[in-house]
Every structure is written in structure tokens, then in C-alpha cells.
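Request:
Um, any thoughts?
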Amino acid sequence: MTREAVDAPLVGRRIADARRARGWTRDELARRTGLSRTTLHHLENGETERPREETLARLADVLGLEAVELHALVDRPSSPVAECDRQTNTEIAAVFAESPGLFGRWTRDEWEELYSTFGAGGRLNEAGVRHEAERINRRRETIDRLRVVLDTHLADVAERMIGTLFDMVSLDTPPPPVGTPEPSDDTRSRE
């Protein structure tokens, strides 16, 4: 089974930041995980493109990270578009290094969405990265809240509301062309 490539610099920064936040040296992390200091050095410096899943899981466990925080950075087989997006939106890595908490619990899809986002003039600047990350976080929070509501006595109401909102934005029922007269009461009664 082929291991998938990761965004090695992001994984490395996430591991190093979590280690430093606990006040641990690489030697201490090596002792706690059973990984070699050399392995940790290569991971933290973004030199390991295909780490073992067990390695990431062990690091996530010892560092108190959710496994998804490291696994979310595993790339799908890269496409030319994805590579272009990563090369174009270089500011994302800088914002991540400065504010890793902004990207907590992110999934692979959320990372891909952010990397594929462009501003009005092209690549995202720092403010654009932060704005898009906050928008993605708000959407996830809204979906999480909806899941809670769907497990209550208000599930039917929530489902009907979402259905109505979906119908309002659905492409299956485009609005009439501009300038189309509204049907008269006589026409409606015959329908």
C-alpha cells in the first residue's frame, strides 16, 4: 500500500509548535513517542513527504492533538491545479505558522478549499487567508449546531427549514428571466 504525500512543511510546523508549547525538546518527544530523534528532525523540518500513518497517530496522541489535525494535512493524489494552488497561495503557510489555532480540527477538504480560493486580484494576501479561514470555521460551526438540532425534537422543523432554503437557492428552479410578467390571478387559477 502506497503512503500518501503530506504537506510536509505544514505537518512539520504543527508537530514543532505542539512540542514547543509543551516545553519539550526533540529528545523528550522522541522518548515519549518511541520515535528516533532523526525521524522527528526530518518531520519537523518538512523533509518527510510520506510519513507512516502510525507515526502521525503516535505523535498526535502524545502531543494531545486530534489525529485529524495531522491527517488532515495528507494530500490526495495531487493534480496540476492543486499544485498550482499551493504554489500560488503561499501566504497560507505564513498565517498558519503565526496562528495555528485558526486551523484547529481542519479536514483535508477544508485545506483544499482554502488553497483553491483566490481573491479579486489573484492569490490571497494575509487578510484574505484569515477571512477565508474564519468563513470556513463559521460554516463548520453552523453545521455542527445543525447536527445537534437534528438530534432533538426540533429535527422536523430544521429539516423543513433547510429544505425551503435549499429550494430557494437550487439551480433546478431558476428564476424567471428579468422582465417576465407575473402570472395574473386568472392564469394561476387555471394551473
